Amino acid sequence: MINNLQDALSTNIKGMKRSAIRELLKYLGTPGLISFSGGFPSPETFPTVELKQIMNEVMDTEAAFALQYGATEGDILLRTMLVERYKAQGIEMSVDNLIITTASQQALDLTAKIFINRGDYVLVGLPSYLGGLSAFNSYGAQMIGIPMDDEGEDPAVIEKELKRVEAMGKKVKFIYLIPDFQNPAGVTMTEKRRQEIIALAHKYDVLIIEDSPYRELRYEGSTQKTMYELDGTGHVVMLGTFSKIFCPGFRIGWVAGHPDILDKFVVAKQATDLCTPPFTQRIAARYLEKGLLDPKIEEIRQMYSVKQKGFLAALDKYMPEEITWTRPKGGLFMMASAPEYMDTDELLLQCIKEENVAYVAGTSFFCDGGGKNTMRLNFSYETLEKNEEGAKRLGNFFKKQLKK
Predict the structure, then answer these.
(1) Within this chain, do residues 385 and 363 fall inside the same structural domain, yes or no?
(2) Which of 289, 309, 338 is the last residue of a domain?
(3) Residues 285 and 140 reside in one and the same domain
(4) What is the pLDDT along the chain (404 residues), one digit of tens a residue?
């Protein structure tokens, strides 16, 4: 081991932090623990029987392709199937507008690698997805948080910050948004807000990175148009993934955008992993080709809708009135807020030890270090019964804290 490891480290790695969510995983083996911490889909949703058959078919007939290196842009069959799905939803694109990534987390890392120099400004939600914040932070971005309400991020604040950065002789590199069932807050941006923010992107000639992992997990209300669809000028880059609607273990995501922008993603990806595994791509492509995905998504929606309603009812029943939470119409998460004097980060290990229930402290999702009284709760992984029992334990814990 070298004596001066710190001197050998890059500036990038020195700026990186361990993921708070990944760190929590070490507690998942604790007997009896109920976890609301991860964003794990329920294992009940995995199409194991169908995938076993398709894997055998791929190995029998396409092994030479599936086990070889593949194109950096991704399996052309999978790209074609994804483009056809978007077209069926009214979103115009071609295979030239879409490439495959090794899950959407790689897409976020590539976004940061392509656009961010150390000290560059990016706008993010306040709060926003931890994986995005971590990727941008690792390349030295200065993140400016945009507060949000139940309609999404505030366009007036976005324009104020765009003007402020411009007055400093600099330029915001991009605006990072999760318009549908935002992680962690669960908020869905209204179409009016989407249009207003797109207009600002045109006015100030800035990119929008639209992260869209949860859009198809809607349990009530009408589906919103994507910002990619509403824009139509190439100012929006949209990220998608199979992790929440198919199999997270396949690690398949994608980027949709203008071909000139996607060319930079391809160059950056070639230096990262050459290609996303052709084996999992081809299995996913054949799964789509057989028409199995949409019925599976409907099945997932029905399961999660029941879980979400049950979890909200359990929170209503067991949590003290001093704790409030969002009530999203889809997705996997909701965000709870305790009185401002409480620090959910400090209380987390105590909550695990005393009540054997876990959440994610909200500070991880706030680029400005705020949110100390907040926590993200996930309802998709545990069973209905465990969600209710976990809500009861969480309520007991915070009732005791409030008495103190």
Answers:
(1) yes
(2) 289
(3) yes
(4) 777 888 787 777 776 666 555 556 666 667 899 999 988 999 999 999 999 999 999 999 999 999 999 999 999 999 999 999 999 999 999 999 999 999 999 999 999 999 999 999 999 999 999 999 999 999 999 999 999 999 999 999 999 999 999 999 999 999 999 999 999 999 999 999 999 999 999 999 999 999 999 999 999 999 999 999 999 999 999 999 999 999 999 999 999 999 999 999 999 999 999 999 999 999 999 999 999 999 999 999 999 999 999 999 999 999 999 999 999 999 999 999 999 999 999 999 999 999 999 999 999 999 999 999 999 999 999 999 999 999 999 999 999 999 98
Give the number of other Cβ atoms within 10 Å of residue 20's Cβ: 19
| DSSP at 176 | E
> Do you know the residue count of the chain?
404
Distance CA 344, CA 132 (A): 22
| Domain end call among 289, 311, 332 | 289
Claim to verify: residue 53 and residue 33 sit in the same structural domain: no
Q: Are residues 36 and 56 in the same domain?
A: no
What does the CA dihedral 257, 258, 262, 263 come to, rounded to 10 degrees?
180
Cα separation, 227 vs 237, in Å, equals 9
pTM (whole model) above 0.70: yes
Pairing of strands 333-337, 374-378: antiparallel
Question: To 10 degrees, the CA torsion angle through 48, 50, 52, 58?
Answer: -140
246 plus 354 within the same structural domain: no
Domain that residue 27 falls in: 9-46+295-403
Q: Which residues, at least 6 apart from 19, have a Cβ–Cβ distance to it below 8 Å?
A: 130, 131, 134, 364
Residue 56 shares a structural domain with residue 18? no
112 and 89 share one domain:
yes
